[in-house]
Amino acid sequence: MGILSSIKEKIFGKAAEVTGAAKGTGTAASAAKAISQVDVEAIIEAAVKAKGAPSNWRVSIVDLLKALDLDSSLSARKELAKDLNYNGTDPDGSAEKNIWLHKAVMQMLAENGGKLPESLLK
User: Fold this and answer.
1) Which domain holds residue 65?
2) Segment 37-53, tens digit of pLDDT
3) Residue 13 DSSP class
4) Which positions ≥6 away from 23 have C-beta within 8 Å?
5) How many domains does the chain divide into?
């Protein structure tokens, strides 16, 4: 499973657990409805709170990945950039590329049924 798939699983899998869809108690239609209403911000905030450490996940791809208990290493971010079709020229690990990654992940979550505040999509 790639890192992009892992991000989706962490966000949308948690929503399915909360609604019971992952446990087989819902129909395919109810699972689709539940996933379309995923509050991404609430899921990440709960993960950060459970860790008990400060996090800048709203702007940092590294902190976002750590909040989701995913690999935030340079190699993982390179894989994520490839998965998201990054075609810029910024060097690996640069602030510009990390900002792009964060925005692209937020956009991908929104496009896949995640509910996010506008501030996270800019």
Assistant:
1) 3-120
2) 799 999 999 999 999 99
3) H
4) 17
5) 1
